Hints:
The structure holds two protein chains of two kinds.
Chain A: E1 9-14, H1 20-28, E2 33-38, E3 49-52, H2 57-66, H3 70-78, E4 83-86, H4 88-93, E5 94-97, E6 108-113, E7 124-129, E8 137-142, E9 147-151, E10 156-161, E11 164-170, E12 173-176, H5 187-196
Parallel strand pairs in A: 1-2, 1-3, 3-4, 4-12, 5-6
Antiparallel strand pairs in A: 6-9, 7-8, 10-11, 11-12
Chain B: H1 3-12, E1 18-22, H2 25-34, E2 38-41, H3 46-52, H4 61-70, E3 75-80, H5 84-93, E4 97-101, E5 122-126, H6 129-137, E6 142-145, H7 155-173, H8 179-186, H9 190-199, E7 205-207, H10 215-223, E8 229-231, H11 233-236, H12 241-253, H13 258-265
Parallel strand pairs in B: 1-2, 1-8, 2-3, 3-4, 4-5, 5-6, 6-7
Helix pairs in contact in B: 2-12, 7-9, 10-12, 12-13
Amino acid sequence: MQNGAGKLMKIGVLALQGSVIEHIQCLQKIEGVQVVEVRKAEQLSEIDGLILPGGESTTIGKMLREYRIIEPLRDLIQSGLPVWGTCAGMILLAKDIVGQDEVYLDVLDVSVRRNAYGSQLDSFQSSAVIHKLAEHDIPLTFIRAPYIEKCGPEAEILLILDGNIVAVEQDNILATSFHPELTEDLSFHKYFIKKIS
Amino acid sequence: MDRYTLNKNLAQMLKGGVIMDVTNVEQALIAEEAGAVAVMALERVPADIRKQGGVARMSDPLMIKEIKKAVTIPVMAKVRIGHFVEAQILQAIGIDYIDESEVLTPADEMFHIDKRSFDIPFVCGARNLGEALRRIGEGAAMIRTKGEAGTGNVVEAVRHMRSIMSEMRQVQLLPAEERMTFAKEIGAPVDLLEYIAEHKKLPVVNFAAGGIATPADAALMMQLGCDGIFVGSGIFKSGDPAQRARAIVKATTHYNDPNIIMEVSEGLGEAMVGIEIDKLEDQYAKRGW
């Protein structure tokens, strides 16, 4: 897939910590995409879209602040940079995190609960059809996952699983409780690329 | 549902991060604040176990519970090699990971824990590929180098990382008919050897541990190909633990950027006192079978 200028589409993966290589390997399977590992604020201006991977949200959130990435990234998202957060990434995007005052990018109109299912013993695999993305069953992997307790009017729900909101979209923002990067299914990665082009 | 896959997935989420040894709630909070991706709760850091001697065992469950309550990042704790009842206790606590560790005094001189019989993920130490694959064969969801804990000397971690990487490269070059004999020679399950030949990587993440004391040590191990870093005595046995912890986290993220590693290495105060390996009475890395 190529954008208007006929150049490769440049997708960044925030590479502070977490499931970075898994996202990169998924993106490399999609034609016309060039992948960049983003570790510094100045790299943000070169990319057409950014993935916030799974990992430890507390850790990545602290690094975003300490390495002064958080403000420029928030500005870019608010002015339309396509961004997709998986698991920890969803927490980083949220405007409200249940049980804590501190939020990070503060752009996604949802209230998210961290480790919402419990401990690692409650991590699980499932699957679902999401018509907006594809007609087949998409495998879903939840690892100490969050879910969305409340969704504001700005965000559109993509998937409710067992009564919990686990995937949403809000204009240029996509967020999933689960980890498409841990599966072989590229539906979400392709959907995100399509959003950009 | 495949519990083992989910446990390997959990370890993947720690990649690029630093896991720090802590002995109380105060240290756990410093570690979390500095950007640790998990903490290892234990009663004495390896440097003190080395100095004080005696049998080193699993920590008091109460202390582990207090640390678990104080932080939001995952909490790990150590059990003695082969001591499956200590592991049952940690599973009952609801710990996030169990480290079956050579740093504690082994409880069994022949056998490791059957890690597949537990729901909680295990991490285990290894000096070479054979040892790593034996532990994975027993059900470990994550591997780390043994290094030589409590020495502040990175040389053994480097040796172990280089051994594992070099043997991985050998496996990928072997013709199929030579794999069984190679597996026999290094004492590894042949199916896991086949996995490496096919996928060109270990089936689980591999962290560096044992003797890492400076930001440069952490970046060195990352450049040698590990997925993340354990720091034991290196932080809380140094002059300014909070600053050193932050510096090691930053050097691990930016391991390929010498300018950043230089910046974070400046004015860090005193590192822990190091020990040369041939001056040691006990080499912990020799524990494990």
